[in-house]
Amino acid sequence: MGSRMGTKRKIILAGNWKMNKTSIEAIDLANALNRELGDVQEVDVVICPAYTALSEVHEVLTDSNIRLGAQDLHWENAGAFTGEVSALMLKSVGVEYVIIGHSERRQYFGETNDSVNKKLKAALKNGLLPIVCVGENLKEREAGKTFAVVQNHCEGSLAGLTPDELRQVVLAYEPVWAIGTGKTATPAQAQEVHQFIRGLLGKMFSADAAAGVRIQYGGSVTPENIAELIAGEDIDGALVGGASLKGESFVKIVKHCCGILK
Ligand code: PGA
Question: Which of the 8 DSSP states describes residue 11?
């Protein structure tokens, strides 16, 4: 396995809080994280609370290095789309990053490459930094279709972008079978797919743009396995679900990536 030493890609760790935490709980967790990580500069740290807590968590993060992210958006800026939230609305409460195409949205809410692509373009147009998720499920992995599925997700989700736009995108490779299951891809399995994605982006865009894109790994990331995952040459961070809901474990994950914890 190679090492990230020598790449110019800054590690990015994002906590995906999913449908967890009331406003008060979210404020508490954001305060706890801010105390420990508010000054961190070695890596980028993003937290993604539910829509209902964004505004209050933004207040907590005033003067903090921790950035605010949302978990989804709609591709239009306004209109008759009951229940949806737009890029403009997210920006108005201090959101800078947005997760797009998470497997739970693909699986339970009919998200497709096409809708991911529209959302991605809306995010970029409005100056939000997208975290675009791709990854195969267990059946697909067992059928030997991992690369085909990941390629399909990348090609469909990123269609029509320019190399310059690609540079603003963070990709998250999340094998669906590893999400919330406690089953992590081995560092070698993760690195293999990350390397494949970077090669594919090189062909789709340019070698230079591909070399600069940050690719996170996601799926049962913990303080115990982050160090060996992040050692992968093409693994530039993590999208963390369960372990981001407890201040202590997310702080440890970030500190491992800063080299503070070994
Ligand atoms: P997990 O979730 O860390 O709980 O597996 C990751 C994700 O879904 O982004």
Answer: P
CB contact at 8 A, 102 and 143: no
Distance CA(171)–CA(229), nearest Å, equals 16
| Contact (Cβ atoms closer than 8 angstroms) between residue 201 and residue 209 | yes
Class of domain 2-258: alpha beta
- End-to-end Cα separation, the chain, in angstroms: 18
CA of 80 to the centre of ligand 1 (A): 32
Within 6 Å (CB) of ligand 1, which residues are found?
A: 16, 174, 179-180, 218-221, 239-243
pLDDT at 1 over 70: no
Q: How far apart are CA 170 and CA 237, in angstroms?
A: 10
Which of 47, 174, 252 has most ligand 1 atoms within 8 Å of its beta carbon, as the pocket-test mutant? 174
CA distance 235 to 189: 11
User: Which atom in ligand 1 lies closest to the alpha carbon of residue 244?
Assistant: 3
What residues does each domain of the chain span?
2-258
Dump pLDDT digits (tens) for 172-220: 999 999 998 988 889 999 999 999 999 999 999 999 999 999 999 999 9
pLDDT digits (tens, 9 = 90+) for 120-135: 999 999 999 999 999 9
Question: Distance from the CA of 79 to the center of ligand 1, in angstroms?
Answer: 32
Instruction: Give the model's pLDDT for residue 210.
Output: 97
Q: Is residue 125 within 8 Å of residue 86, measured between CB atoms? A: no
**Ligand 1 mean position to 174 CA, how many Å?**
8
Least Cα distance to 216 among 148, 156, 170 occurs for 170
Active site residue: 74, 104, 174, 256, which one?
174
Q: Quick check: is 174 catalytic?
A: yes
